[in-house]
Amino acid sequence: MKKLFTTEAVLAGHPDKMADLIADSILDAYLAIDKNARCACEVAISKNKVLVMGEITSKGEVDIQSIVRKTIKEIGYDKDALLFNGDTVEIIVDINKQSLDIARVVNKKEVGAGDQGIMYGYATDESKNYMPLVHNLSCSLAKRLEIVRVKKIVKGLRVDGKVQVTLEEDGDKRKVKAVVVSCCHDDDKDLEKLREEIKKEVILKVIPPEMLDDEVKILINPTGRFVIGGPASDSGLTGRKVEVDTYGGIVAHGGGAFSGKDYTKVDRSGAYYARYVAKNIVASGLASKCLISVAYAIGVTKPLMVQIDTMGTGKLEEDKILEIVNKVFDFSCQNIIKELDLKNVRYTDTTLYSHFGKDNLTWEKLDKVEIIKKYLTTS
Known about the structure:
Elements: E1 2-10, H1 15-33, E2 38-45, E3 49-57, H2 64-75, E4 78-79, E5 84-85, E6 90-96, H3 100-106, E7 117-124, H4 133-150, E8 157-170, E9 173-185, H5 191-206, E10 217-220, E11 236-237, H6 242-245, H7 266-283, E12 289-296, E13 305-309, H8 318-328, H9 333-339, H10 369-378
Parallel strand pairs: 3-6, 9-10
Antiparallel strand pairs: 1-8, 2-3, 2-11, 4-5, 7-12, 8-9, 12-13
Helix pairs in contact: 1-2, 4-5
């Protein structure tokens, strides 16, 4: 039976991703001076304003205004012609301390969850990094689009952009059915030349030729002209790209966003640990696909629920696999922080092109595979 899967990815210059990157940059700055800083930072962006709000408690202070401007300019909004400039945009900072009611239950000797919620972690053996193949393609296209802009391989590109891939799965066979690329460009850029260059330098550089055929639908700037982009055309807000940040909508999502939140916020750290568990389960050969779901209550260190779904690919009954999971992994908040070394992660490394599937992130390590295999042989 043929199935279609579609995912998208956005560039750093997309207003929502700009907000995420600013929030994570602020988080990194606080953790650099205080490993125990508590941060729940939200960012909203409009045509000529940036609002930084939320709750931050730290022993040190950082220059939030400077961080915001630096991040915006590093993204590429550094001149008035783009209708948004990090040097001149108005920045409003409205930061308060973390609620004492929350701090009381989180800052215990054994750390309690910084919020309640449901988190999901997923892994599949359909790609080398155990991510959904279609989402890998979307993220790789977005990264390549950024590269050709920065290196001027394709001239006349501006900072904003997004991509979308539709993949057809027919048993073990996979092919790309559609690719959509929307990229902001200079006013004098010829549209047909742009389309030719993007197809040659982005799409054909990323998607393997065996996954493309004459029936593939390629849409590059389908609306035509795309000169006004970024905050000049669309507002931005942290946490609006949760499917881009995770698995592209292929599996369930608990609803909690990541960026701007410190490691005690389990909607971030719990999701990271669930991915860690799922990836090690698949890499050990226990299943071809694995979805871990976990639920926490605020202030409580251990989860209220840990559940597994191998989507019919498990080598054992799911209750047996769950027994192995509970023996090998510790979902307590204190352990997650320690085992994944979350006090020392640079969170801006996570912001773009999914928080998963990158070798440099601690929750991507495969250090439990041999332990799981030992339990597998005795089960």
